[in-house]
Amino acid sequence: MRKKRILLTLALTLILSVGLGVFCACGAPKNINATISRDNMGVEIADTMYGLFLEDISYAGDGGLISELVNNGSFEYESNKTAYWNIDGNAEVKSGSGLNTANPSYLHLAVDGEVRLENLGYIEYYDYLTENYNKDKMNSADMGFHKDVEYDLSFYVRINDFEGTLSAGLFSPSNGETVNLTIPSQKDEWVKVSGVLKSNATEDGALVLTAQGKGELDIDFVSLVPRDSYGYASEEWKYVSLRADLYDALAQLSPAFIRFPGGCLAEGDTFEHLFDWKKTIGPLEEREQYHNIWRDEENGKYYNNTFALGYHEYFQLCEDLGAQALPILNVGMICQFQAKYNQNAKKYAQGKMSKSEWEAYLDSVALRPGTAEFDSYIQDIMDLIEYANGDVSTEWGAKRAQNGHPEPFNISYIGLGNENWGELYWRNFDALYKAVKEAHPELTIISSASYQFSGERFDDCWEHIHSDYADTLVDEHYYTSQNKLFKHNDRYDSYDRDSAKVFVGEYAASSWGIGKYWSQNNLWSAVEEASYLTALERNGDVVKMASYAPTFAKINAQCWDINMIWFDSQGIVLTPNYFNQMLFANNTGSRYIDTGITTKGIYSSASVDEESQSIYVKIVNVNANAMDVDLTFDGFGKINASSMQYMSGQRAAYNAPDMTTVAPMQVDCAIDGDSVLTRVDGQSINIIRIYYGDNDGSSAYNLPDLPKNMQNEITQFDSFVMTPELGFVIGIIGISVLITLAFVVIAKINKKLIYKKAGIK
After folding, report:
1. What global pTM score does this model have?
2. Average pLDDT for residues 209-227, to the nearest whole number?
3. Burial class (CB in 10 A: 0-12, 13-18, 19+), 414
């Protein structure tokens, strides 16, 4: 038995040593040494590499980027016409003689004394960091008022026989004054009423409309817009304006392109609501509203799209940001997930659905090429291209001019499909591809590679593309976990250089075992994404575009767990993932250079912009320890200046309302002849900038100021976090303990058996 115990002890010691060795192996200090040579310049990196994807999900558009504060201002919510209104008095929603056929509903008031209408705005729904519905929040006003800001109020009124007064006011702890509004003298016709309200404080509140007197009147299309919003009262932004801090956050990313309007939103969830771009332009009152696919009406989470963020607004946003517009159109079919395409295709393949049933199903979810309906849809796409690129002498170019933009937007891309796959997609794609190519060979068409990182549907899509559509840009989507982007850093190294190029239209990494919701938008997920972006630059001859997704989410109202920018009614939270995108997008050259760095736990890329005489060396350190860096530059001449922009901290460090733990910093680097010396932290993203020739570095990109609500002192994040390495060690120890206990139990049983056999009690 003693011999067994000795062997057991040795075994346990060995197991623990291996475990602790794995855990501590990265602690040894290392240096990073490399020569960056002009002779090693490789592929071109497209100037379209880093862009944005915008979709109205998690109140990114209505309730977010769009500055409108009133929620359900035209009473068009399908299942609850008065959602987000508290009504005290006799009022009901009617339809049939509304403003127009696109917005038929309105609120009818029968006043005998007073009717009070309170709009809560775009509310929060959940407890913090959960998806647990909170009834108190769902009944709390959440319009974000700002001190001394004026708000334009407007709505339409139709007077029947009403005699009395109309008033309005902002209501919050510091607000409550009302202003009287002019009642139109016209009877039985819709007349727009307007006024200006001013906030006494920065706080949340509601809009209150009050009718006092006697008689009947109708109200529709209530609006409240802050005058400090981006684009307010400008000729270009004719119908809407944007929330200024959210716009500024987009501008700081210097996006090369914007992919819009989805996502699944670009498709729709029913045949009746197949996304129609034409319904999203023109006066807001004439845009047909319908439900957003991310709603949860059973729990009181109503979500409509007003389409205030419509196609024209997307085009204008792209122009203002200097980004190329990249519209994604459905191929005449609804979202395949909503249509249960996989389930029905499986039933058909198994013989559980007849040929006629299968064809009937397809016709219920998609337009069929060769039909009048499909030909009409092709014309819709041609009209969109004309709206974007035609001059004012064309029908749709003239409509664009009427909407505030006489000059063409000059789009170069058009996407056909979003996360689509299978027989039905390729049937419709082929017909649309041929039509667009024939009419507009100058446009680059974007195809879909399904929704998978890899697998049968992904492979099938690429098989079609390699065979017939190699001139398209292929839209790949993947949301990863379990260190997948680390493991697949070589993904594009083996792609066919002579086939279609790649657009990573939606990507994001979530950290192993760390956090929930925006706490998943932590430093480690940003480090993982940064490591992957170095590979995209290395494969710049294959990958031409990339955009993180989703971009926006309202705090405690999210529809997706991880998002680049979180916001509430008053402020904004920029995540480490946001800062990673910002650093890469603003510090990228036009030609890749092989760094030759092979240090374990280091991902790197280098690029040069020979026109500006700038070099960018990106070093992503996933090790726990800091490292000294010595870079030698060969063939570039005299080095004039060097600096490093970086981001580092604890793995699980994240930003939240009133807590900033991660933000980029900048330091100067030492120059020694043709070498640049610096030091990179453990768990960090680093971009070393080198300026040579005639560039003295004075025009280098500088980090912007943080949003006002994030400008408090950066907090040290110091919380226990379960990491893969720590989990491995704990697992080894746990197994060791169980083995030890097992041996102890077995030894005791053996001892009892021996004693029993010997007759010893």
Report:
1. 0.92
2. 98
3. buried
